Amino acid sequence: MIEDVDALRAIYGPPMERAVKKQHDRLDRHCLRFLELSPMVMIATCDGERVDVSPKGDGPGFVKADGDHAVLIPDWPGNNRLDGYENILRNPQAGLLFLIPGLRETLRVNGRASIHADEALRARFETRGRLPITVLRVEAEEVYLHCAKAFLRSRLWDPASWTEKAELPRPGQMFKDQIGLEGPVEEAEAMHARYEKTLY
């Protein structure tokens, strides 16, 4: 097991020059355009003991820039586990990974996170006459484009590589078995129709 940075670097060597130089502390015009087109972000948090990664998604541009040094992410009704939010209250650091369907590169934004419930800020995200419960603000400390290698290897956006629908796990069966639910298995279509009623 590798236990220190020197041992790790002895195996991997130093970071490539481009990988170091591409990192900035602000959102330039390219990053702002990336946000406008992104419908999905993964939010990573850690409180020192527990780690969490939570997906957030909506229409392209649902995450808004707050100047060129911060982003705002609306939080809509969900399961109220609040794992990531509780982590942020204990350790206000978050890592964001933005995706655009079809684009193999991703945008990474790391920085200091804070949770806000004031109505003026929430009103910027009004959807279908509703406001998000809270808004997560992340002050950018590190911003950079991540290379496409993971997406090239996984062929994530290539439909020809996707698993046949009949072979996919059945979420309803997973919930039934893991939670011990009684009654018939809820099919994915019914589950998603139920979700649609409480998206906002």
Automatic annotation (TrEMBL):
Pfam families: PNPOx_N. It comes from the Bacteria. Residues 28-147 form the Pyridoxamine 5'-phosphate oxidase N-terminal domain. InterPro entries: Pyridox_Oxase_FMN-dep, Pyridox_Oxase_N, Split_barrel_FMN-bd. NCBIfam families: PPOX_FMN_DR2398. This is Pyridoxamine 5'-phosphate oxidase N-terminal domain-containing protein.
